[in-house]
Write a structure and sequence with these properties.
By secondary structure, the protein is an alpha/beta fold. The chain has helices spanning about 10, 20-35, 60-70, 80-90, 100-105, 110-120, 210-225, 255-260, 265-275; strands at about 1-5, 40-45, 50-55, 70-75, 95, 125, 130-140, 150-155, 160-165, 170-180, 180-195, 200-205, 230-240, 240-250, 290. The chain folds into 3 domains: about 1-95, Rossmann fold (3-Layer(aba) Sandwich); about 125-165, no CATH class; about 170-295, ATP-grasp fold, B domain (D-amino Acid Aminotransferase, Chain A, domain 1), CATH 3.30.470.20.
Length: about 300
């Protein structure tokens, strides 16, 4: 098959997210290539040593043209941009990721939180406008990673920001693939540094917890409620309950570690979620720790 893998930082030349973007793109392109597929990826200059680079001066235009030439496509981009990019894919070829509607729902943190709470999934208290007072994390309403995210005890929210109650617990994520069935891959430890600001430093894959089944069931229910398809990452703070704090409807940075310990090609699983049947389980061998500062070398 001809497969398009489009990662926004590499394809649009966004230096701020280049390390994570390049590492995720290298991981995905490498896996699809090892499975025997012809893999194309847009780039402003970065080359991976696998797949076929396509020079891009405008990410959306390149996506439009490349997707018409490929049998299937997968996009990795900031959540607030992802839905419109997925629409391009769905118009021209088979979408290996979440639907645009699911992406929009996941990206809108207050709406996502309301739906999860309605379905009895633990979420932190969320304030969408006005003043807040207490122990809160302030973050953009739309957005990924931990940019512009900080702790605050009081204030008035600016437009486009929300405040969520700070949960004391372990910062984890669950990586899951959804097709006709759901396949949890791993529980991961997120290396988060919290002082005045909240910053992501890396991850440990997998991370074993006595409450692993509780985490997996929460992620499965979350993914189902939000209509996720393909690969998704559910961020959870494990306190007295497993609180869902963010849902990423696309491959996440944890995938870099997952391919190091998975006994199956991640590309095969992504394709099975769209065109076939997912296995009931996958094998995990060993563990892998990565730091954000090391990603350009991975």
């Amino acid at each position: 098959m001809k497969i398009l893998v489009a990662e926004y930082a590499v394809g649009a030349g966004v230096k701020e997210f280049m390390a994570e973007g390049r590492a995720m793109l290298r991981t995905l392109v490498g896996s699809f290539s090892r499975c025997g597929h012809e893999v194309y990826y847009p780039t402003t200059g970065t080359q991976l040593g696998a797949g076929i680079p396509v020079k891009s001066s405008n990410f959306e235009d390149t996506l439009q043209e490349l997707s018409k030439e490929c049998d299937a496509g997968l996009v990795v981009a900031p959540d607030e941009l992802l839905a419109s990019l997925m629409e391009i894919i769905e118009k021209n070829t088979q979408n290996l990721g979440c639907s645009p509607d699911s992406v929009r729902l996941c990206a809108d943190k207050p709406e996502c939180t309301r739906l999860l709470e309605k379905n009895n999934i633990p979420v932190p208290e969320t304030i969408s406008k006005g003043a807040y007072n207490g122990n809160y994390v302030v973050k953009p309403r739309f957005g990924c990673a931990s940019e512009e995210t900080y702790r605050s005890s009081s204030g008035t929210l600016k437009d486009g920001f929300i405040a969520t109650r700070f949960i004391d617990g372990e910062h984890l994520s669950v990586s899951i693939i959804t097709g006709k069935t759901q396949l949890p891959l791993t529980v991961n430890r997120q290396l988060i540094e919290i002082d005045n600001n909240v910053s992501y430093k890396g991850g440990i894959v997998p991370y074993h917890s006595e409450r692993e089944q509780e985490l997996i069931e929460t992620a499965k229910k979350t993914s189902k409620v939000l209509g996720c398809r393909g690969y998704a990452g559910v961020d959870i703070v494990l306190g007295d309950k497993p609180y869902v704090v963010d849902v990423n409807p696309r491959p996440t940075t944890s995938i870099i570690g997952i391919v190091k310990v998975l006994d199956t090609e991640i590309a095969d699983l992504i394709l099975c979620s769209r065109f076939g049947e997912l296995p009931e389980t996958v094998g995990i061998n060993g563990s892998f720790t990565f730091l954000k500062e090391d990603l350009l070398r991975l």
